[in-house]
Amino acid sequence: MSPLFRRRRAPRERLVTLVRKPGCHLCDDAQLVVEKVCGDLGVPFELKDITEDRELHDRYWEQIPVVLVDGEQHTFWRVNEERLRRALTD
């Protein structure tokens, strides 16, 4: 379908997933950004522990923290607040 006719999803219809692991300072930093942006926009988010999910471990181990937006990889290592905000509102 043409992007011109695609319905934009409201932020509350999106889902942000933060793939992280315990004891990871970059993960803690990423979580603060995700919580702020999602809280401001009313976007639901979830946290996934890479040490408890073999598939996530195999896929993202060298990239954590990883942020997914609607199941698609948005970024890894460092989360830029403005970039995430744009991704959720554009």
Automatic annotation (TrEMBL):
Signal peptide: none annotated. Gene3D superfamilies: Glutaredoxin. Transmembrane segments: none annotated. SUPFAM superfamilies: Thioredoxin-like. Pfam families: Glrx-like. It comes from the Bacteria. InterPro entries: Glutaredoxin-like, Glutaredoxin-like_YDR286C, Thioredoxin-like_sf. This is Glutaredoxin family protein. It comes from Streptomyces musisoli.
